[in-house]
Amino acid sequence: MTKAVVLLSGGLDSATALAIAKAKEFESYALSIRYGQRHQIELESAVRVARALEIAEHFVLDIDLHRFGGSALTGDLAVPKDRGLEQVEQNIPVTYVPARNTVFLSFALAWAEVLEAGDIFIGVNALDYSGYPDCRPEYIVAYERMANLATRLGTEGYRRIKIHAPLIQLTKAQIIRKGMGLGLDYALTSSCYDPDADNRPCRRCDACRLRAKGFAEAGIVDPLLAGFGMSTP
User: Fold this and answer.
1) Which helix (H) or strand (E) holds 119?
2) Looking at residues 223-229, what average pLDDT do you find?
3) Which CATH fold topology does 3-227 show?
4) Helix 172-181 to helix 12-23 angle, to the nearest 10 degrees?
5) CA angle 210, 205, 140 (to 5 degrees)
6) Burial of 232 per CB tally in 10 Å (0-12, 13-18, 19+)
7) Sign of CA dihedral 214, 13, 187, 191
8) Mean pLDDT, residues 99-108
9) What is the model's pTM?
């Protein structure tokens, strides 16, 4: 089997990307990163997803972007709540973590070189998303070009590096239907930026609202909410 490194946050999108990699018969190595995020429940979700999908290896890497701050996910800024979906898609919000996907892909690239894996999967999405600049197709194309310039694996020419972003042009509803078709249990995932002390989703942050929109449009009850005995907002 061809090896692939898959970035796995524990959220809905990254879990779907991992399920897709496995369905494509890649020997999947999942990389999750504890970066000082306030919503560390997503790492527990990543462990559950990796275990359920029975992948080759799951590695949790520790870095500390909290030291830099600059985001509501890594600093003391408040997570925006109750924003309309038109607001979510207009401006880059304070939940954007500076250069996060560039940092994460760099670690994935390093592990891929060690594994001699030419394939990296990331669950970025450019349709139903919060306007992050590092989720756009042109960013993925540019990063792939850089990866092939900057690595032994790419420059020696025996294996070109490919950055797979299989969800990038899908709506959240299409992503959910895709994952369900692959047998993915979304009750294992976590999307909320600001869960309560019992790790229940707030249902008010941008991530919760986009997730709710996706399940509503897919005509499917969110199993995560059902598991907490919570109704659809």
Assistant:
1) strand 119-121
2) 91
3) Rossmann fold (3.40.50)
4) 40
5) 55
6) exposed
7) negative
8) 97
9) 0.95
Spatial distance between the Cα atoms of 29 and 108, rounded to a whole number of angstroms:
10
Q: Are 205 and 79 contacting, i.e. CB atoms less than 8 angstroms apart?
A: yes
Tokens 């990389």 identify what position? Answer: 31
Answer whether 169's CB lies under 8 Å from 127's CB: yes
Euclidean distance between CA atoms 201 and 203, whole angstroms: 5
> CA 159, CA 62: separation in Å to the nearest integer?
28
Per DSSP, 202 falls in state -
Write out the two tokens for 226: 């059902």
Radius of gyration of the chain (CA): 17
Token pair in block for residue 129 = 């998303």
Q: In a 3-state reduction of DSSP, which class is residue 150?
A: helix
Residue 211 clears pLDDT 70, i.e. is over it: yes
Confidence of residue 91 (pLDDT cuts 50, 70, 90): confident
- Per this entry, what is the length of the chain? 233
| Mean pLDDT within 194-219 | 94
Q: Do the beta carbons of residue 80 and residue 93 sit within 8 Å?
A: yes
Q: First CA to last CA across the chain, in angstroms? A: 43
Q: Which of 124, 99, 160 is nearest to 16 (CA)?
A: 124
Name, in order, each residue with C-beta under 8 angstroms of 203's C-beta and a sequence gap of 6 or more: 192, 209, 212, 225, 230, 233
Q: Which residues are within 8 A (CB) of 185 and not within 5 positions of it... i.e. 6 or more apart?
A: 52, 223
Cβ atoms within 10 A of the Cβ of 83, count? 17
Interatomic CA distance for residues 213 and 232, integer angstroms? 10
The mean pLDDT of 34-49, rounded to a whole number, is: 93
